[in-house]
Input
Amino acid sequence: MTISNSDSPLARREALHDRLEQLRRMIEIRSVEERIQKLFAEGHVRGSTHLANGQEAVSVGIARSIDPDDIVTCTYRGHGHALALGVTPAGVIGEICGRVVGCAGGLGGSMHLVEPAVGLMPTAAIIGAGLPIACGAALAARARGTDRVAVAIFGDGSANIGAFHESLNFAAIQKLPVVFVCENNLYGEYTRINLSTPVDDIAVRAASYNMPGAIVDGQDADKVAEAMAIAVARARRGEGPSLVEMKTYRYSGHSRSDPATYRPAGELDAWLKRDPINIFAERLTAEKLLEADGLDQLKAEVREAVEKATAEVLDSPAPELGEIMSHVGAHSAGGDRRHHFWAN
Amino acid sequence: MTISNSDSPLARREALHDRLEQLRRMIEIRSVEERIQKLFAEGHVRGSTHLANGQEAVSVGIARSIDPDDIVTCTYRGHGHALALGVTPAGVIGEICGRVVGCAGGLGGSMHLVEPAVGLMPTAAIIGAGLPIACGAALAARARGTDRVAVAIFGDGSANIGAFHESLNFAAIQKLPVVFVCENNLYGEYTRINLSTPVDDIAVRAASYNMPGAIVDGQDADKVAEAMAIAVARARRGEGPSLVEMKTYRYSGHSRSDPATYRPAGELDAWLKRDPINIFAERLTAEKLLEADGLDQLKAEVREAVEKATAEVLDSPAPELGEIMSHVGAHSAGGDRRHHFWAN
Amino acid sequence: MAKIWIRQAVLRALDDAMADDPSVIMMGEDIAAAGGPFKVTEGLLAAHGPKRVIDTPISEMAFMGAAVGAAVCGLKPVVEMMFIEFIGVALDQLTTQAATMRYLSRGRLTTPLVVRASAGAGQGFGCQHSQMLDHWFRGTPGLKVCVTSNARTTYGLLRSAIEDPDPVVVLEPRILYAEREEYEFDRTYRIPLGKAEIVKPGKDATLLACGAMVRVALEAAASSKADIEVIDMLTLWPWDRETVLESVSRTGRLVTLEEAPAGTGWGAEVVSTVAVEAFGSLKAPPHRITLPDAPVPYSGKLEARYLPNAAYVTEQVAALVSTNKAPTPWWRNAA
Amino acid sequence: MAKIWIRQAVLRALDDAMADDPSVIMMGEDIAAAGGPFKVTEGLLAAHGPKRVIDTPISEMAFMGAAVGAAVCGLKPVVEMMFIEFIGVALDQLTTQAATMRYLSRGRLTTPLVVRASAGAGQGFGCQHSQMLDHWFRGTPGLKVCVTSNARTTYGLLRSAIEDPDPVVVLEPRILYAEREEYEFDRTYRIPLGKAEIVKPGKDATLLACGAMVRVALEAAASSKADIEVIDMLTLWPWDRETVLESVSRTGRLVTLEEAPAGTGWGAEVVSTVAVEAFGSLKAPPHRITLPDAPVPYSGKLEARYLPNAAYVTEQVAALVSTNKAPTPWWRNAA
Ligand SMILES: Cc1ncc(C[n+]2csc(CCOP(=O)(O)OP(=O)(O)O)c2C)c(N)n1
Ligand SMILES: Cc1ncc(C[n+]2csc(CCOP(=O)(O)OP(=O)(O)O)c2C)c(N)n1
Ligand SMILES: [Mg+2]
Ligand SMILES: [Mg+2]
Output
């Protein structure tokens, strides 16, 4: 199954049930991020942008474990999650290039991707902000009588901020249907986890809230999905939140300007040997879902699609000036376009 | 040894090495709080006031375990700690009555007691605020080459706020000489701990920061002091922070307006049987430091001293109007009266 | 007419809002089982159940943020910040997250939430429990701020705030909770956000106030020789330029009565706007009556002086009207 | 004279301050080993050691509060808030704790600390990383706020802020860090807090600006037919009433150029004060040039329009000077 640029976020999300599409999506994430890096060099991207190459299995593993009307909050390091959840390459690249085809119409930028149709809240640029918001989404899901869950994705460094603690405690005492996913990529900006956090595993902190804490191989999309399934099922059953820690790694530096020279020699290489795309491709090969040259073919296919999306973005205009004032409040010209979650 | 109203906070603090004085101080705390309650009824106290009757052993146990130039931060529920650390009854009662003899000259009120001479920072009225401040004091102590420690005292309910988490993590990673003391009196305002906190023991949260966590009988001043001694020694040795949980109980409601009807029947009675003053008095009797009628005699003595202090307070004027503007910044009329900690 | 406590107007507004709209929920510390630290939520738990009236742990960031998430997902959360100072540990969720949600989603996600908080001085709660702090919110694009002043405005503003499609902060002067007043509830009564009210017409000067200062303004007007027009601002952001400008164009004099140090008070925004828009129609310089530039003192004697009272306001307004020069605040020389 | 990056002025001020006073320490995220997210602390760790240049976990409340405690206990902490928005999770420690410490101890405990933060728009960081937010601090009794505008003022203000006995917020326009400028360091150079500077004298109007808007103001003045006096405010609280009032008394016209939506901008305070104190000496209504009432947009085209540029300022000032009427902002009709 191949998903074209013109497919809707929802269709792209549904397609993720297919194992080959899961692989394809991981490749797409990698490809889109590579393209974004190039677009930065070419002067199409402003501000900063945070790549998550190496973490694709986490994104796809999560996305395939929840439904499009489950809610996700995540961070500025959100390209992968957005794509996995269903946002189109043009939607992501477009936003980062500040064009109208962007998923936030160019108002948000790299740190603020969004797609209500697949449950993606605006990604937050303030550390920890997404966790309480996910609690609220979970609370609303329950109050409105649905069995929807919320997933809060955040980094290892973010596990040291107050909002982490308050949210886990609040969710636990309220038994909220929320899954806290820590992407432990060993670094918060330029600081290795051991220099900011006195424990190796964020998951141990689950005990402070009497909730399950799981440690997961974040390079293996199946393991990610498995762990998510357990936590999500628990949440849907009304048994409360979980903390799931994905051990992963970002190949690039923190943001575009970071050469990541602070990493110990050999660390990156060791992680590259456990590349999530390769791991999953091998698995699909073993499952006879992927031919010998299937991976290369997929990569070429995806690269072409990403180029097409990029062309579409670069053809797309910047927003009208009126957009500045159109979505400030209900009184603004943009008016009411409210997305209704779980309508009827 | 008897400490008169005219003794300085520092002298009162030094006196606390004496076991009989420790008992006397607990009685004093109880007495002062009873008097404050009466002063409230008599219209001398404004705003609110938070009694800690039942928690006297924690206050005295802590105060006798640290030196006057160690730093203490605590909360609005601070009468007991202030008295134990050395603030005079007139200083406490005076502040609560808004008089110049008050330890903050009547500017602060019940929630803001202070005495630099014995290391007491202004008690904070915002939950959690004292923990980071204690971290900073500890950091300064170390940076200035002293072996001073900081003690942050807070309640069980406060262990759910972000500042708790951030402070413990920060102190742990920096190995700061700070002792976090949680007075677990089972309630945060009108809410029992089990309704706000998914774990029974706050001390278990120490594991999230890879620091020791101790659970202590907070009704026994000796046990309190013992546990504090271990944590303080560790801090002084440069080995980092500890979390010490004192199991205790407040006999009164949260604040003056709270009849505490939310408490399960029998709970208060059970705790009254383990009254910290009685426990300590029995111990001193066994140690032959207290005569048969010694406790009653002490109580009478203390009550008289507290009455004297109260009279002194009620004779003391309200602050001059100029005080409003005198201590806003260095430019204010109050000028520089800065206390220099650890000046040699 | 029945005499009620003003805090009953809060309760009634919340109760009616919850009854009228099942998507309204409440969160805060001790608001449910205990009925609220100020008893303004008494009975709501029994009436609407624990799924809608939620006691939270002491974690303002968590429940303020939960309100944001819940609002986006179809609820209308009303958050109680017991004392407005407490949002100092959670401001991000309101001003940075809630207020940008609509913008960042181009109108697809909105946060119809209300933060209500007790605020203000006068009761000896000390400097960390006695401020208005509206300046933390005022002017933030996407956010509205209003202040209640009596039973009627409490009911009218709260109902409107809860129905508003965007985030609203409602500051309730704590000192008014225990005041009694004649008021007949009308379930349909609303005060439109963004509108001020002329509560006493007058010809010689326009005296603007909000919150607990409204009654001080009215008292001052009542005892003034000059004929003072008193306006209750009601909403501080966006504030009612039209009503204020129209009034000033008639009276030719403007005085603001603000429960805030001058550097943080709403009067700066209003006076500056009037200076721009009504330049020429002023007979005297505009004048701001504010708190001194100092924290709120505890001692009763000091707090009584710290807060403007009717006599002081009367005197200040009289000086302005009679001399057409702005009088000096008492604390300018004391500083 | 040597050309330097403005960010080097930050570095040099910090380095000199640490060398001159052993009680100065620094805390922040990635300021030590990594030399700072904006490279303004490069080399400080090597020069002054890990006990004085401290990398913190991501926990603004902890290290902001630690600065308060450390300041009381004899250090002079300089805290870096990478982007000023981040203090939204820790505001309490600065405005409620640090700012009341002196008051609550009657002068016995003080908090000589500095919060420095990058601030402002123009670089595509989006609406949660592009604000000035000085209104969160301005006017808080006990707190000072200043804004740097070039290498010299960066050095001068930072050194003064670090030496100040009370808490000071120093906002550094992020967009200036990578600007180059001729500047010769003078270790003794200080800019007194609370003083503004006339950076270009003029006769027809007083144009007030701070931060990145100062150079916009200067460009506008340079290309104006009218003779514009440009004042760099430097300190926003307490601001320099004397210099401003004196200037306005000469020029008779006042324009503020603010990088903030009108509802949060410092111009309200200044204009309202001028309206009170210089009532009568104004030939035209005061005029505020502000950002529109909207979050900071990401797209370059939008952000370029969102921020006032020299051409727009020139046009607005010209309109005021020639008509003595306040012109309408471009966005008033777009809203
Ligand atoms: C409150 C706050 N503090 C600091 C920052 C700056 N900041 C952005 S990303 C980052 C590191 C986060 O690390 P981690 O949580 O591990 O996530 P990762 O970037 O590795 O995905 C920091 C400190 C911020 N955005 N918000
Ligand atoms: C940030 C903040 N939130 C809420 C409050 C209101 N408040 C004052 S005391 C209190 C309960 C604290 O409980 P606990 O920590 O157990 O201390 P205790 O009063 O039992 O000593 C609360 C919620 C506050 N002062 N600050
Ligand atoms: Mg990380
Ligand atoms: Mg408690």
